[in-house]
Amino acid sequence: MSGGPAAPDTSGPKSLADPGAVASRHALAEASPHLAPLRRLAERIRAEQEKPVPEADPLDGGVAARLLLLLETPGPATGRTAFVSRDNPTGTAANLFRFLGQAGIPRADTLIWNAVPWVIHAPGARNRAPRTAEIRAARAYLPPLLDLMPTLAVVVLSGRVAQGLAPDLAAARPGLPVVAVPHPSPTYVCTSPAVPARIVAGLAEAARHLGLPG
Q: Uracil-DNA glycosylase-like domain spans which residues (predicted)?
Protein backbone atom coordinates (compact mmCIF):
# COMPACT_ATOMS: atom_id res chain seq x y z
CA MET A 1 0.00 0.00 0.00
CA SER A 2 1.21 3.51 -0.68
CA GLY A 3 0.20 7.11 -0.95
CA GLY A 4 -0.80 7.68 2.69
CA PRO A 5 1.11 9.07 5.65
CA ALA A 6 3.53 6.95 7.61
CA ALA A 7 1.60 4.79 10.06
CA PRO A 8 2.23 5.51 13.75
CA ASP A 9 3.52 2.58 15.76
CA THR A 10 0.29 1.93 17.65
CA SER A 11 -0.26 -1.69 16.67
CA GLY A 12 -0.25 -4.67 19.00
CA PRO A 13 -2.63 -7.02 20.81
CA LYS A 14 -5.45 -4.98 22.37
CA SER A 15 -3.61 -1.71 21.60
CA LEU A 16 -6.90 -0.10 20.57
CA ALA A 17 -7.96 -0.14 24.20
CA ASP A 18 -6.13 3.21 24.31
CA PRO A 19 -8.42 6.04 23.15
CA GLY A 20 -5.38 7.91 21.84
CA ALA A 21 -4.46 4.97 19.64
CA VAL A 22 -8.05 4.82 18.35
CA ALA A 23 -7.99 8.51 17.47
CA SER A 24 -4.65 8.15 15.67
CA ARG A 25 -5.95 5.15 13.75
CA HIS A 26 -9.04 7.07 12.60
CA ALA A 27 -6.91 9.99 11.46
CA LEU A 28 -4.77 7.56 9.49
CA ALA A 29 -7.86 5.91 7.97
CA GLU A 30 -9.16 9.24 6.71
CA ALA A 31 -5.83 9.91 4.96
CA SER A 32 -5.26 6.41 3.51
CA PRO A 33 -6.01 5.95 -0.22
CA HIS A 34 -5.91 2.16 0.13
CA LEU A 35 -8.95 2.38 2.44
CA ALA A 36 -11.03 4.94 0.54
CA PRO A 37 -13.00 2.43 -1.60
CA LEU A 38 -13.70 0.27 1.45
CA ARG A 39 -14.87 3.29 3.41
CA ARG A 40 -17.30 4.12 0.61
CA LEU A 41 -18.60 0.55 0.67
CA ALA A 42 -19.02 0.72 4.46
CA GLU A 43 -20.94 3.99 4.08
CA ARG A 44 -23.22 2.40 1.48
CA ILE A 45 -23.94 -0.54 3.81
CA ARG A 46 -24.67 1.84 6.70
CA ALA A 47 -27.16 3.74 4.58
CA GLU A 48 -28.90 0.64 3.23
CA GLN A 49 -29.00 -1.39 6.46
CA GLU A 50 -29.30 1.54 8.89
CA LYS A 51 -26.76 -0.16 11.17
CA PRO A 52 -23.23 0.70 12.33
CA VAL A 53 -20.52 -0.71 10.06
CA PRO A 54 -16.97 -0.70 11.48
CA GLU A 55 -14.22 0.05 9.00
CA ALA A 56 -11.10 -1.83 7.97
CA ASP A 57 -7.88 -1.12 9.83
CA PRO A 58 -5.60 1.28 7.91
CA LEU A 59 -2.55 -0.61 9.16
CA ASP A 60 -3.75 -3.57 7.08
CA GLY A 61 -3.69 -3.82 3.29
CA GLY A 62 -7.09 -2.42 2.34
CA VAL A 63 -7.94 -2.89 -1.31
CA ALA A 64 -4.33 -3.92 -2.03
CA ALA A 65 -4.60 -6.96 0.25
CA ARG A 66 -3.93 -10.40 -1.21
CA LEU A 67 -5.66 -12.24 1.64
CA LEU A 68 -9.25 -11.59 2.71
CA LEU A 69 -10.10 -12.96 6.15
CA LEU A 70 -13.84 -13.08 6.76
CA LEU A 71 -15.06 -13.34 10.34
CA GLU A 72 -18.75 -13.61 11.22
CA THR A 73 -20.06 -10.26 12.50
CA PRO A 74 -18.64 -7.26 14.38
CA GLY A 75 -18.42 -7.83 18.11
CA PRO A 76 -19.28 -5.36 20.90
CA ALA A 77 -15.71 -3.95 21.00
CA THR A 78 -16.22 -2.36 17.60
CA GLY A 79 -18.59 0.09 19.28
CA ARG A 80 -15.58 1.52 21.12
CA THR A 81 -13.15 1.54 18.19
CA ALA A 82 -15.31 1.48 15.00
CA PHE A 83 -12.70 -0.78 13.41
CA VAL A 84 -12.51 -4.42 12.39
CA SER A 85 -8.99 -4.96 13.68
CA ARG A 86 -6.65 -7.52 15.15
CA ASP A 87 -5.72 -4.72 17.60
CA ASN A 88 -9.21 -4.45 19.12
CA PRO A 89 -9.37 -4.95 22.90
CA THR A 90 -10.91 -8.43 22.78
CA GLY A 91 -9.72 -11.97 23.20
CA THR A 92 -10.83 -12.83 19.67
CA ALA A 93 -8.75 -10.02 18.18
CA ALA A 94 -5.74 -10.91 20.32
CA ASN A 95 -5.96 -14.53 19.16
CA LEU A 96 -6.16 -13.34 15.55
CA PHE A 97 -3.12 -11.10 16.06
CA ARG A 98 -1.18 -14.08 17.41
CA PHE A 99 -2.26 -16.59 14.76
CA LEU A 100 -1.58 -14.25 11.82
CA GLY A 101 1.79 -13.40 13.29
CA GLN A 102 2.69 -17.07 13.70
CA ALA A 103 1.76 -17.66 10.06
CA GLY A 104 4.18 -14.94 8.96
CA ILE A 105 1.51 -13.14 6.92
CA PRO A 106 2.33 -9.41 6.63
CA ARG A 107 -0.36 -6.96 7.64
CA ALA A 108 -0.12 -5.30 4.23
CA ASP A 109 -1.26 -8.58 2.69
CA THR A 110 -4.44 -8.81 4.76
CA LEU A 111 -7.94 -7.38 4.90
CA ILE A 112 -10.12 -8.43 7.84
CA TRP A 113 -13.86 -8.08 7.20
CA ASN A 114 -17.08 -9.74 8.34
CA ALA A 115 -19.54 -12.00 6.54
CA VAL A 116 -22.28 -9.80 8.04
CA PRO A 117 -20.42 -6.48 8.09
CA TRP A 118 -22.80 -4.47 10.28
CA VAL A 119 -23.37 -4.60 14.04
CA ILE A 120 -26.36 -6.84 14.74
CA HIS A 121 -26.59 -6.68 18.53
CA ALA A 122 -28.45 -3.98 20.43
CA PRO A 123 -26.37 -1.37 22.29
CA GLY A 124 -25.10 -2.86 25.53
CA ALA A 125 -26.20 -6.38 24.62
CA ARG A 126 -23.92 -9.34 24.17
CA ASN A 127 -23.14 -10.43 20.65
CA ARG A 128 -25.32 -13.11 19.07
CA ALA A 129 -25.25 -15.30 16.00
CA PRO A 130 -26.54 -13.67 12.79
CA ARG A 131 -30.06 -14.62 11.75
CA THR A 132 -30.80 -16.21 8.39
CA ALA A 133 -32.31 -12.99 7.01
CA GLU A 134 -29.21 -11.03 8.04
CA ILE A 135 -26.90 -13.50 6.36
CA ARG A 136 -29.05 -13.40 3.23
CA ALA A 137 -28.95 -9.59 3.13
CA ALA A 138 -25.19 -9.56 3.68
CA ARG A 139 -24.53 -11.79 0.68
CA ALA A 140 -25.30 -8.87 -1.63
CA TYR A 141 -22.21 -7.02 -0.41
CA LEU A 142 -19.68 -9.77 -1.05
CA PRO A 143 -19.32 -9.25 -4.85
CA PRO A 144 -18.79 -5.47 -4.47
CA LEU A 145 -16.13 -6.19 -1.84
CA LEU A 146 -14.34 -8.64 -4.11
CA ASP A 147 -14.52 -6.16 -6.99
CA LEU A 148 -12.43 -3.74 -4.91
CA MET A 149 -9.60 -6.25 -4.47
CA PRO A 150 -7.82 -6.84 -7.79
CA THR A 151 -4.81 -8.64 -6.28
CA LEU A 152 -6.80 -10.99 -4.05
CA ALA A 153 -5.13 -14.43 -3.99
CA VAL A 154 -6.86 -16.35 -1.18
CA VAL A 155 -9.86 -16.05 1.16
CA VAL A 156 -9.90 -17.42 4.70
CA LEU A 157 -13.39 -18.15 6.03
CA SER A 158 -13.40 -18.12 9.83
CA GLY A 159 -16.38 -19.73 11.50
CA ARG A 160 -19.65 -21.27 10.40
CA VAL A 161 -21.35 -18.12 9.08
CA ALA A 162 -18.38 -17.07 6.96
CA GLN A 163 -17.95 -20.60 5.65
CA GLY A 164 -21.52 -20.50 4.41
CA LEU A 165 -20.36 -17.91 1.84
CA ALA A 166 -18.12 -20.40 0.04
CA PRO A 167 -20.63 -20.92 -2.83
CA ASP A 168 -20.99 -17.15 -3.25
CA LEU A 169 -17.21 -16.79 -3.45
CA ALA A 170 -17.01 -19.55 -6.06
CA ALA A 171 -19.67 -17.84 -8.16
CA ALA A 172 -18.17 -14.36 -7.86
CA ARG A 173 -14.50 -15.31 -8.30
CA PRO A 174 -14.20 -18.82 -9.83
CA GLY A 175 -10.98 -20.58 -8.99
CA LEU A 176 -10.06 -18.34 -6.08
CA PRO A 177 -8.52 -20.48 -3.29
CA VAL A 178 -10.67 -20.64 -0.16
CA VAL A 179 -9.47 -21.91 3.22
CA ALA A 180 -11.86 -22.71 6.09
CA VAL A 181 -10.71 -22.30 9.71
CA PRO A 182 -12.48 -22.23 13.09
CA HIS A 183 -13.47 -18.90 14.57
CA PRO A 184 -10.71 -17.51 16.84
CA SER A 185 -12.95 -16.59 19.78
CA PRO A 186 -11.40 -17.59 23.13
CA THR A 187 -14.45 -19.64 24.04
CA TYR A 188 -14.04 -21.82 20.95
CA VAL A 189 -10.25 -21.86 20.84
CA CYS A 190 -10.15 -23.20 24.39
CA THR A 191 -12.56 -26.08 23.76
CA SER A 192 -9.85 -28.38 22.40
CA PRO A 193 -6.17 -28.26 21.35
CA ALA A 194 -7.41 -29.32 17.90
CA VAL A 195 -9.08 -25.92 17.35
CA PRO A 196 -5.96 -23.72 17.45
CA ALA A 197 -4.11 -26.42 15.52
CA ARG A 198 -6.71 -26.18 12.74
CA ILE A 199 -6.39 -22.38 12.66
CA VAL A 200 -2.60 -22.60 12.47
CA ALA A 201 -2.79 -25.19 9.68
CA GLY A 202 -5.34 -23.16 7.71
CA LEU A 203 -3.35 -19.94 7.91
CA ALA A 204 -0.21 -21.84 6.88
CA GLU A 205 -2.10 -23.05 3.83
CA ALA A 206 -3.20 -19.48 3.07
CA ALA A 207 0.41 -18.31 3.40
CA ARG A 208 1.45 -20.89 0.82
CA HIS A 209 -1.15 -19.49 -1.61
CA LEU A 210 0.54 -16.12 -1.12
CA GLY A 211 3.92 -17.62 -1.94
CA LEU A 212 5.26 -16.91 1.54
CA PRO A 213 7.98 -19.13 3.02
CA GLY A 214 6.67 -21.89 5.25
A: 65-188
